[in-house]
Amino acid sequence: MDPNRRQFLRGAASAIATTAAAVATPVSEAVAFGPREPKTLPPKAVGMLYDSTLCVGCKACMAACKQANGMPAEQPEYLAQWNEGTWDAAQDISGKTLNVIRVYQDGTMAQKDREQDGYAFVKRHCLHCVDPSCISVCPVSAMQKHPLTGIVTHNPDACIGCRYCVYGCPFNVPQYQFDEPFGRISKCQFCNHLQAQGKLPACCDVCPTGASLFGLVEDLQAEAEQRLAAKPGETYTFPRGKLGGDRPSHEAPIGHYQPHLYGEKEAGGTQVRYLTGVPHEKLGLPKLPDHSYAAVSEGMQHTLYKGMVAPLALLGGLVFLARRSSKTYGGEDPTRTDEEDASS
Amino acid sequence: MSETMHRPLGGPILTKPFAILGLFVLIGGYFILRRFLFGMADVSHMSNGYPIGTWVVLDVVIGTAFGCGGFALALLVYICNRHVYHPLMRPALLGGVFGYTLAGLAVMIDLGRYWHAFNLLMPWYAQINSVIFEVALCVMAYITVLWIEFWPAFLERMPPAFKQHFGLHKFQAFLRRYMYVFIGLGVLLPTMHQSSLGSVLLIMGSKLSPLWYTPWLPLLFLSSALAMGYGVVMLESTLVQRSFKLPSEAALLAKLSRVAAGLLALFLVVRIGDLLARGQLGLAFAGDRYSFLFLIETALFAAPIVILVSRRRCANARLRFLATISLLAAGSLYRLDGYLLAIDPGNGWVYFPSAPELMITVGVVCLEIMLYLIFIKTLPVLHGAHKVQQ
């Protein structure tokens, strides 16, 4: 080994040892790193089953949503002069739109709910995760999950506008109003103000085909499984509004579903679940693991900062070493200068 | 004469470069005003697909890594008892003071509901699972600690009678006696939040390329922040020494550069080892944008190690400077990639900063340099400095 390299290795080794004091704790703990326990569905979790094959794209839910939540109309700039304010054409959810129907198109678009040469509708709004990333990242508890219903709400009085909920949401749901000087975060809160009056969320209330169906998550899960088990094409009775409610149902042939209930397991589970005719990735519903990233992130934090033991121990060590160092340096504060000596 | 001889540099404050920097600060100020009057969309290209833009990534994530000089050097000087580096300590601390304070300013520009910022300090709003919460509190505490650590420089400059009159000599005695506590905090707090700036990305999951997304993010961010801290000390020392014709600190810098190289080696071992262990190293050669960025990053991280591995090359000031630049570029690109370039929110979102948005970032950096210049000229910061006659 040439002396240069040996010296370098020695230098490198001492450098690594130098940082050991600060780094040792994270390293040893990261080895034991694991996600925290997954969260479970709240006892009276309410949710929505969105059946893409039932959706006719009428967008009544979008209009009802705007009305129920007092949100302004959105118009593309080049058409804004035309019958100003009387119509709405939101392209996606935004600071002004909590709910949107989007369309998937392929080739000739000859048939609904077909991947090739077909088209399909999808509804986009908050999925009300069982273990939400937005709640995990929010530094000021502005995002809250109701302990019984599991509805994820946002408190603008707490919010500081850091937008980490926007950044971290796997579905890109929370939206900040960038065009406002005093913007706020917008997101679907499942019309909790209407639910408090015993009413349905506006979108489920007005849906003519029951494509947006309100209910308890457990009931909706059973309903979805029943639809998945039924033979495509055979007649099925579809409820409207609320599962188990008093609205008249309607009969229709059952769709050719993808054999997957989206939201049952995605990101640790969501309270809004999707049945679709085309693969969910085509509809902008991302492929996600069965665990929530919030569990990964909090697992790391809880390991490193458990009871603040590691940081406090590290601080103790650092203060001890700094004190010893000041002493060996001549028993005086090392930041002291000669000028000071002269003046004092 | 003691070894620790800090003196004000002196010389005129209002020089031509200073005026040019001031111009950029004014331009930045104009756009900051527009941001507060008309909203962020007026000056920025941030969107709900990319809600975090250059203000956070350049000014805060990369900016505070550049402010790690004080942290990195304190670890070496006070914790590892390497007092030979002491002459570099106070300028490094000053770099940290401004790096962090102005990162705080950038956060206030970036916060969408800045008038609620104090909610971060209200216990009833605290959300202790939030990584951002920890980073926010930790950075606020560290800014305070940095100013306390820097206070002796102000106190030394004050006339004794003035200090006597306001009882500041007691404060000075207090600082002198208990400085080791603040030094300890000044190492702990950046250890916490620089690693947590990596943990922030753990929430990104599938939005972040697997080449960056790993449970080792905290260690990778911490080790690269420390290396960048040493890099900044070397850069600043070289630039100041050249601009103001001060005695060279080459021998010290050569030693320091090898410490930085050791950290870079640690970084690369952890990063590549982790990619191997997760079986994702193949992505580095996939030929797409992410693999391209990863390879540039890795080359920038490896180049300083290759340069500094030989003692002969290490003694060469020019090569050492090249290694320093490469090191700082590597750490910066790693952060830029992790927070922005390797993020894909899907649904066709793209982000490229607007000119006004960048001008705000540039303005903040220029303000930082201006304040640094004022401070080293008027306060005892630099080691062995002498008045330059102009």
For the biggest β-sheet of chain A, the strand order reads 9-1-12
β-sheet strand percentage of chain A: 5-15%
Please name the CATH topology of chain B: Formate dehydrogenase/DMSO reductase fold
CA-to-CA gap between the ends of chain A? 54 Å
How many strands of chain A?
A: 12
Alpha carbon gap, first and last residue of chain B: 27 Å
Task: Indicate the CATH architecture of chain B.
Answer: Up-down Bundle
CATH topology of chain A: Alpha-Beta Plaits
Mean pLDDT of chain B: 91
Q: How confident overall, as mean pLDDT of chain A?
A: 87
Shape of chain B: globular
Largest Cβ-defined interface: A-B, 98 and 106 residues
Parts with pLDDT < 50 across at least 5 consecutive residues of chain A = 14-18, 20-31, 330-344
Helix % of chain A is 25-40%
* Class per helix and strand makeup of chain A: alpha+beta
Count of discrete alpha- or pi-helical segments spanning 4 or more residues of chain B:
13
Number of domains of chain A: 1
- Main β-sheet, spatial strand arrangement of chain B: 1-2
| Tally of individual domains of chain B | 1
Which series of helices and strands of chain A comes N to C? HEHEEEHEEHEEHHEHEEEHHH
Walk me through the structure.
The complex is a heterodimer of chains A (344) and B (390). Chain A is of the alpha+beta class and 344 residues long. Chain A has a single domain (46-297), classed as Alpha-Beta Plaits (2-Layer Sandwich), CATH 3.30.70. Helix content of chain A is 32%, strand content 14%. Chain A has helices at 3-31, 60-69, 133-137, 164-168, 192-195, 202-206, 217-229, 293-304, 309-328, 338-343, and strands at 46-51, 100-105, 111-112, 118-124, 143-145, 152-154, 175-176, 185-186, 212-216, 235-238, 250-253, 272-275. In chain A, strands 9-1-12 form a 3-stranded mixed sheet. In chain A, strand 7 (175-176) and strand 8 form a beta hairpin. The two termini of chain A are 54 Å apart. The model of chain A is unreliable at 14-18, 20-31 and 330-344 (pLDDT under 50). With 390 residues, chain B is mainly alpha-helical. Chain B has a single domain (15-346, 361-375), classed as Up-down Bundle (Formate dehydrogenase/DMSO reductase fold), CATH 1.20.1630.10. Chain B contains 13 helices and 2 strands. Chain B has helices spanning 16-38, 54-66, 69-79, 89-110, 131-157, 160-165, 168-199, 217-243, 250-277, 289-308, 311-315, 317-341, 355-378, and strands at 6-7, 382-383. The longest helix of chain B is centred in the middle third of the chain and has 32 residues, at 168-199. Mean pLDDT of chain B is 91; it is low at 386-390.
